[in-house]
Amino acid sequence: MIRIEHLVKNYGSNCALDDVSFAVEAGEIVGLLGPNGAGKSTAMNILTGYLSSTAGKAMIDGVDILSDPLRAKKMIGYLPEQPPLYLDMTVWEYLNFCYDLKGCRLDRQSHLREICDTVRLGEVSGRLIRHLSKGYRQRVGIAQAMVGDPKVMIFDEPTVGLDPKQIIEVRNLIRGLGKTHTVILSTHLLSEVQAVCDRIVIINKGRIVADEKTERIANVVSGSRRFRAKICGPQAMVLDALQKMPGVAKAEALPERDGDAVVYAVETEQGLDIRKKLFYLLSERGWALVGLESSGVNLEDIFISVVDSSEQETAKRAPRAARKTRRGKETAEETLGAALYEDADRRRKEAAAGKSDEE
Ligand code: ADP
Predict the structure, then answer these.
(1) Nearest CA to ligand 1 atom 1
(2) pLDDT tens digits for 36-62?
């Protein structure tokens, strides 16, 4: 339903999107996750036709957003981070205004009533938007995105500034919309993607660093796994055996007890599953294993690990200068940025060559 291919966006000499490709199938809710400045809004703005790209394609149901923006935009409902609300209109006037703006052909009354029912705006539809709380205003923003019944819904940081109750309401709304729509949700909140999305695409410094189903996101890091093991036996000896066990990176006794069992936190090395070996080791020594539970890898660990490793990789490469493209549409600023970068690169290479000549 949504296809982004080799998308590049340069702001002058700064590359905000660096060869980004991903697809979202019909009916999927995908979370675009990344730290501030990662390039999420830029991707959303290109996808919704607000910004042009330096290179690459963005397609909605096979329609190129750049070459046929009107057709593509009819299929998109967009809630920007700051919803474009007219505060002096009532909710009902505003939705009618959006209806006209979008050239919607559905039955006006029943379509707008249905939207108001879905987002529970019915009782405030006659009130001025100015007098609504932030939570209600966000619902109005979602309602305007729903006008015209678009197949694709795009939400940029939809819960920023809301209180916990409003956050839950908006998330439930988005999850509900996801049953009948294809949804992209941009957020820097890990809990949000975990609560709402089927799939997570992590973006950092303009590049995709992970793309995985929410329940399998832990697979993107082949890092360590953590367990809590409840073991009956002499604490010092058990701990020593755990620490010496092949595949164990770290083991420590926790202050918790379960009857006469001590609780140990055990961390394994890269991607190893030590559970069976642990069981046999303990049974050989005559120490009872009365509980073993995985603490798993939490989303926060994954996020930090993925972002960190992408940063190390970027540091190894040249600085994030504007990516050159063959479209020939670069601005003078972009051309200058690229020329400066090339010049610096050439001088670096010459210096390196000079150094090896001397050797
Ligand atoms: P995010 O939405 O993930 O916070 P953005 O897409 O807003 O990230 O920004 C990505 C990068 O592009 C950042 O380095 C940001 O400073 C830069 N950027 C965004 N908008 C502009 C702009 N209009 N002009 C220049 N640089 C911009």
Answers:
(1) 37
(2) 889 998 999 999 998 999 999 999 999
The residue among 294, 313, 345 that closes a domain is 294
Q: Of 251, 277, 294, which residue sits at a domain end? A: 294
Whether residue 280 sits in one domain with residue 181: no
CB of 34 within 6 A of ligand 1: the answer is yes
Q: Which domain holds residue 71?
A: 2-75+150-220
**Residue of minimum CA distance from atom 27 in ligand 1:** 11
Query: Does the structure show a pLDDT above 90 at 242?
Result: yes
The atom number, within ligand 1, closest to the CA of 42 reads 6
**Buried b / exposed e across 204-225, counting CB within 10 Å, b at 16+?**
bbbbbbbbbebeebbebbebbb
Tell me the pTM. 0.69
Cα–Cα distance measured from residue 337 to residue 343, given in angstroms and rounded to the nearest whole number: 10
| 69-113 per-position pLDDT tens digit | 999 999 999 999 888 899 999 999 999 999 999 999 999 999 999
For residue 87, being part of any structural domain is answered with: no
Domain count, the chain: 2
What is the residue with the minimal CA distance to atom 22 of ligand 1? 11
